[in-house]
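Schema walk-through. Below, the input block comes first and the output block second. Nothing else is stored per chain. Lengths vary across the set, and this one has 181 residues.
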Amino acid sequence: NGTNGTNGTNGTRPDLSCFDNTNRYVNCGNGTVTDTVTGLIWLQQADCLGIANYAAANQAAASLKDGDCGGTLTDKSSPGDWRLPTKDEWSATMAQAVILGCKFAWPATPPSLTNDAGTGCLLSGGGSSFAGVPWVLHWSSTAIESNPSSAWGANLGDGLVYIISGKVVNLQVWPVRGGPR
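--- output ---
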């Protein structure tokens, strides 16, 4: 440690995850939401970065920082702290919602995410810390090794991950930080 209490740099570290021992998703009050099951810290305003192709989506996630999203992100993060979720992280995030039937099929209601408590669908009551969640295809950071022009995407409409042929299509960008990767 340096004499000023940092690790020898003048940089800051982003806020840590937050917990409340009751809910799966916890609003950290700084523009982020912690998933206590996966350990991921999600951007609270899911549609903040909009849509982009694969390369631009990865760049947008990596460039996200404190003060972005109209000033609602106040987590002390710096460029490089954020990234796209992996294919497996998307699957783990949607798993309980899929079990509960939170998908685009009558009578359930998408998106394939649960409420904060993890006991019901995001839109069917119980409260949610997330805002602006579009139930469309979202990019993952996981590329297809056997086909470099394709990557995995998560569909919040049905709770499944799909191979997206062509990294030039525009999908939703919803970044995370933390977690095991």
